[in-house]
Amino acid sequence: MPHEEPLPFWLVNVPRNEWPPKCPEFLLECGEKDRRIIGSPDSEYKRLSWDEVKQLIQTNRVDKFHRVPSDLRKYRQFTHRLVKEYGSIMDFIVGVRLGWKDLEAKGRAFECEEDIKILYNDWPYGIDEKIVHLVIWTKFDIEEDPATGDLTSEARRKVEEYMARTFYSRVNPEHVRWFKNWRSLKSVHAVEHFHVMLYDPDSEFLKEITNGDVPMCARTSNQSSKALDVSQK
């Protein structure tokens, strides 16, 4: 049999009848890590189990969270369009997703509800589909130790208190985990946030704490549309 050359990374997971003639603009500046992931077949991707998710968070190896290859491709396409249409990802997050006029906190950390918003992660990682990935956005800083980049003990205490009253009181604590990305892993640096993973949570609870939010990945199934669909559904 003749030797077949491997597909360019930008054609993997794309139906042959939809192959672009050249690498799409939104993938031109992909780093080596993203090229490797996008160039891997979805069929070879193994979603992380809840036990694996808990282990990565416990050992602070959150750099091991990756998106399904085709989802990472869609994410890159989506963020590329955001920059063109809104000027920056931050402007979209603050003005559209969060609906905040400014980032001035009304009170101290976790003191005022209006300084906090819980939304779905718009493009979740490749994890068990029973796991829900939320992002807690805050107008206040969550203090880090400049020497280690990890949260200070006081900041961690405040986050745990918030988690206790918001999640642990309503969900089995064994089905809840949270983490804050390393600074080098953040895709949005200017708005403070941390992540919460919930295993098989109640849908009504999710609707309540997210105020009926719908992640962008569920609202932008037609990536070729002329305008981003940012309406609630």
From TrEMBL:
It comes from the Eukaryota. Signal peptide: none annotated. One of its GO terms (biological process) is N-acetylglucosamine metabolic process. GO terms for cellular component: cytoplasm. Pfam families: DUF3605. This is N-acetylglucosamine-induced protein 1. It comes from Delitschia confertaspora ATCC 74209. The lineage of its organism: Eukaryota, Fungi, Dikarya, Ascomycota, Pezizomycotina.
